[in-house]
Design a protein that fits this description.
It is built from five helices and nine strands; from the N terminus they run E-E-E-E-E-H-H-H-E-H-E-H-E-E. By secondary structure, the protein is an alpha+beta fold. The chain folds into two domains: 8-61; 74-153, Ribosomal Protein S8, Chain: A, domain 1. The chain has a five-stranded antiparallel sheet with strand order 4-3-2-1-5. It has a four-stranded mixed sheet with strand order 6-7-9-8. Helix 4 (90-106) crosses helix 5.
């Protein structure tokens, strides 16, 4: 079932209700949940029930409660907490970072380490430009001990 921009939907993978902000080919959607925009596939979306829509408007989301509900395992946190872009082209790196940021946000992580290496700086520059355009990113910085890693804070 295709969803139109502005439609209220429930993201089944995280159990939250939001609004569709964009739709792309292949059943890919971007959904705004509170102040966070997540990428989803059509099969991860459903029309919210009337009771879920009422709860959404009356019940605020508290980060501490959200973080405790469905925390990923330590192994998943370690996997989701960093991404290594060595050997990736700029286009591959940007696509991978976007997907990993979405996964990290869904898992409730506070930060993500992007390992871009030193090289020519093309990947680092492109990733930093991309991060400036992601609303859920509070800030990012090159780690003091390793200039080949950027830490992204949500």
């Amino acid at each position: 079932m295709p969803y139109s921009i502005g439609a209220e939907v429930r993201v089944t993978t995280i159990g939250k209700v939001g609004r569709v902000v964009s739709a792309a080919r292949g059943g890919r959607y971007r959904v705004l949940i509170g102040a966070v925009e997540v990428a989803c596939r059509e099969q991860e979306l459903e029309a919210p029930s009337a009771s879920a829509a009422r709860r959404k408007t009356r019940e605020p989301v508290f980060p501490a409660r959200h973080a405790l509900a469905g925390l990923p395992s330590e192994t998943d946190q370690a996997r989701l907490g960093s991404i290594d872009l060595h050997g990736a082209t700029v286009e591959e790196a940007l696509r991978a970072v976007e997907e990993r940021v979405d996964e990290a946000l869904r898992a409730g992580l506070a930060h993500l380490d992007v390992i871009h290496g030193l090289g020519t700086g093309k990947v680092r520059h492109a990733v930093h430009h991309q991060l400036r355009g992601i609303g859920a990113v509070r800030h990012f910085e090159i780690t003091p001990g390793n200039p080949g890693v950027t830490r992204v804070y949500f």
